[in-house]
Design goal:
38% of the residues lie in helices and 18% in strands. The chain has 76 residues and is α+β, with helices and mostly antiparallel strands. The chain has a domain of 47 residues. Strands 1-2 form a two-stranded antiparallel ribbon. A two-stranded antiparallel ribbon has the order 3-4. The longest helix has 16 residues.
């Protein structure tokens, strides 16, 4: 059975749809909120090397939306 949970974003990757992001929360790159997210998710990248290696994992797609560069979120 296919997953049909409510997520904010979805991306079609080949035959598979990747859903990620919490519904109801805003993304604010380049802010202290963004820096906090990037620092937290950098720890997740270390903890889950398989997800960190996959460019289409929800973790990597979320970091891309937040414009994370290491532990910092950049404005543009």
């Amino acid at each position: 059975m296919a997953y049909s949970g409510s997520k904010k974003f979805s991306k079609k990757v080949g035959n598979k749809t990747v859903r990620y992001g919490a519904k109801g929360y805003s993304i604010a790159p380049g802010t202290s909120k963004g820096d906090s997210y990037c620092a937290r998710s950098a720890g997740q990248m270390k903890k889950h090397p398989k997800a960190a290696a996959n460019p289409n994992s929800p973790l990597r797609l979320s970091r891309k939306k937040w414009k994370c560069s290491g532990k910092k979120s950049r404005r543009s």
